[in-house]
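input
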Amino acid sequence: MRILHVTHAYPRWDGDIAGAFIERLATGVAARGHELTVLAPSEEGRGGAEERHGIAVKRVRYAPARWETLAYSGTMVEGARSLRGMLSAGGMIGALAWAIAREGQRGGAELVHAHWWIPGGISAWLASWAGGPPYVVTLHGTDVALLERFAPLRTLARRVLRSAAGVTAVSSYLAERAARVAGIDPARITVQPMPVEVERFNRLSSGGGGVATVGRLTAQKRVDVVLDAVAWLEAQGRPLQLTVVGDGPERAALEARAEEAGLGERVRFTGAVPPERIPEVIGDADVFAFAAEREGLGLALGEALMLGVPVVAAESGGVADLVPAQGGGRLVPPGDAAALGAAIAELLDAAPASRQAAASAGRELMKRLGSDSAAAAFEAVYAAALGREAARA
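output
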């Protein structure tokens, strides 16, 4: 198959985290014998063609160089709120649509895989109206939140998703939300997470490090609940160390909260760390706590399990796809610090059985989330999409 991936985030250099999971999927698909090209936006005038790890990557110009700042930074939604941002977003969608149609006309692609329904999915949909290839859309999370929040986008999303030859989502939670809002049959959406660099998780935790949590320090991640759970445990006579990995706008408030709770010496804020250092930073935790609400998937939980660290999470969003119902995992009501603390204590009391169960669950996740397994799953999605298109013709 000749597959064209369309995305607004794709690594610009080795070690770049922007769209790194998409590159893992792309190289996995190519390794299975398929021809693969990636279309991504330019950044500040730096467009053109290149090759990364055997994959042809084409960075498409879409605006004056000083305006090409929407992609790669994770702030596209905020950036598109200004007049200049809206014009740039429209330019990006149009430029990608034109490039998709051109690739199809040249015979460079028989199927498009658009990551996020906006902007890439819209571009693929527009290109299909101009005779471009059929397309598959993957929903990653932020795009689902957008179609829920804005009525005009819901109308557009329905057209994009209903016209797609296939739709996938990285969690069952996102699939259910998207199906409900877009008014499509949930059975049409294939649930398949993006691949993880499982090779990094090549050792098991030896324990002794207390509690750990990982995530961008925003209100949605509810790290405040983790802090309160550790304070609750201390009040129960079970003092524990807490390592908070990540940075963000809530960091100062969280540090102040830890001090007010008398946890200053027990809590360590590491700031953001590169993905390759996650096994080192949380590798010896006794329990991984994750209190985020409405999380699309929560891959940090999967990474903890791959290290053999038992996990406890708020029962919200897509985390149930990863957290074991028993053994090495627990799910608790969102926002309930006492329940979170009690679950942490339960997992500690159940060691070493809970650690063994976590390691077993982690091994299963490694099989499921490895690049080749994910590539094989998407290969099946592509084949089914092309089969449906052939049947329509």
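quick obs: The chain has a mean pLDDT of 92.
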